[in-house]
Design goal:
Elements (H helix, E strand, L loop, with lengths): L3 H17 L4 H16 L6 H10 L6 H14 L2 H13 L5 H17 L2 H19 L4 H11 L10 H10 L3 H7 L1 H21 L11 H26 L5 H19 L4 H34 L2 H9 L6 H18 L2 H18 L4 H13 L9 H10 L3 H24 L2 H10 L3
Helix pairs in contact: 1-2, 2-14, 3-14, 4-7, 4-13, 4-14, 5-6, 5-12, 6-7, 6-8, 6-11, 7-8, 7-19, 8-19, 8-20, 9-17, 10-18, 10-21, 11-20, 12-13, 14-17, 15-17, 16-17, 16-18, 16-20, 17-18, 18-20
């Protein structure tokens, strides 16, 4: 017979051993479950493919490849360029205009795709050369701002991260989307304020671009179809017209139609977008499938339940738990891919908070927002690598540029941790009926 300590050590020890051996995270998760079954003889190994298939057989997960495809199509079809041109006309005369436009464009594009790296690629490719060459932004800070603003992708709905969390923890995805709206707007405001403060201290030139009323209206007309996408998608979800998965399907069809109308999408662009979508979605799907056997082993051995029962008496209260949760997730975000962090740690950590009487929605959105800092935290920050690829700067320079903004993001996380109303208030209004 194996006790709680032995089973916990076995499953997590095997996981980290495989990871340090250099196996992909998804394969490490799957193999740790296989080792657990072999050693404990809990069930025959036929359980492994069965649980993998069951984990991936989820209708909400269909939203992930669809949102990813929508993001790639928007990038390739030039819709992000129309959005940036309109924002330049609207905000071009404000102090620190280019940085402000970058952050706002990332926020709007994030609400279309839900992907951090896609947001960095689409907006950074356009804005970085202008910020550095025309306005005199320090290359390091410009790259850091783009990387930090790209973290809005996993927060502002639709969020692929929250789809994964909702499917993993059986939590309402629309409620998570609504709960993330205020935090997303809050972080947007903080990044804009940081840009204004830093540009006021540095010798950043103001770009003088004069737009006539007619010119501004023309740019508004060109950007309007793109600006309508988040309104249609989120309005349809909250209005009960369609589910997040159906909303993603509509978004793909709408984006493809726009690209065809603008004559910016051809068969090659469509094929390239589909290939990239398959690559990205296959990686996420493999992780989710591997989580099926891993989560089944944890649940069958009652490891999360027993850990919660063992830890809750040791915690002095909710505040101590929230501090512990934040510290653990900041470290996890540094070391693991976001989807893997959700799959491995959410079933362990969240039941403890629920047992303490904390709101499950608050914990779910907070869990995802905590992990967003991992997008800009070395060594595995996805946005860091995306920024390096589009900026041509070294990895070290991008990291140095993003560090001050990363600490601001951590400050925002702490605010959301101890002011849960910022997350729970809007869903309580939207779903009160």
């Amino acid at each position: 017979m194996f006790g709680l300590a032995e089973m916990t050590l076995l499953v997590f020890g095997a996981l980290f051993v495989f990871m340090f051996m250099g196996l992909p995270v998804a394969l490490s998760i799957e193999m740790s479950g296989v080792v657990f079954l072999l050693v404990t003889q809990l069930r025959p190994l036929i359980v492994t493919p069965q649980r993998i298939i069951v984990a991936m057989n989820s209708f909400p997960l269909l939203a992930i490849p669809l949102f990813v495809l929508m993001g790639y199509l928007m990038e390739k079809a030039g819709l992000s360029k129309r959005l940036v041109d309109w924002l330049m006309a609207a905000c071009g005369k404000l102090p620190g205009a280019l940085g402000t436009v970058t952050v706002v464009a990332c926020a709007i594009f994030a609400s279309l795709t839900g992907s951090g790296p896609a947001t960095v690629a689409a907006i950074g490719t356009i804005m970085l050369p202008v910020m550095i060459n025309e306005a005199g932004y320090q290359p390091r800070f410009a790259a850091g701002l783009v990387a930090a603003a790209g973290t809005l992708g996993p927060i502002i709905p639709p969020s692929i991260t929250m789809v994964i969390y909702g499917a993993t923890m059986n939590l309402s995805i629309p409620k998570m989307f609504v709960g993330a709206i205020i935090p997303g707007l809050f972080i947007t405001g903080v990044l804009i304020a940081a840009n204004l403060f830093i540009t006021s201290k540095c010798n950043v030139k103001k770009i003088e671009r004069n737009y006539t009323t007619k010119g501004f209206l023309i740019l508004t007309y060109k950007a309007l179809p793109t600006l309508c996408v988040p309104i249609i998608i989120m309005g349809g979800i909250y209005g009960g017209i369609f589910t997040p998965t159906e909303a993603a399907s509509f978004g793909v069809a709408y984006t493809l139609l726009l690209g065809l109308c603008y004559k910016t999408v051809n068969l090659k662009i469509l094929w390239d977008s589909l290939l990239k979508t398959v690559e990205t979605s296959a990686m996420v799907g493999f992780l989710i499938g591997a989580s099926g056997i891993f989560g089944w082993c944890l649940a069958t051995a009652r490891i999360p339940h027993n850990i919660a029962n063992a830890i809750v008496p040791l915690l002095t209260g909710k505040i101590m738990y929230l501090i512990m949760l934040t510290m653990v997730l900041l470290v996890v975000g540094c070391l693991m891919e976001t989807a893997a962090g959700i799959i491995v740690f959410a079933p362990i950590l969240i039941p403890i908070g629920v047992a303490l009487g904390l709101d499950e929605l608050h914990l779910g959105v907070l869990f995802c927002i905590n992990l967003l800092v991992g997008y800009v935290t070395p060594p595995f920050g996805h946005n860091l690598f995306a920024t390096v690829s589009i900026s041509g700067q070294s990895y070290e320079d991008v990291v140095r540029g993003v560090l001050p903004l990363m600490f601001l993001l951590i400050g925002c996380v702490l605010i959301f941790t101890f002011v849960p109303q910022l997350i729970t208030w809007l869903p309580s209004l939207a779903f009160s009926k």
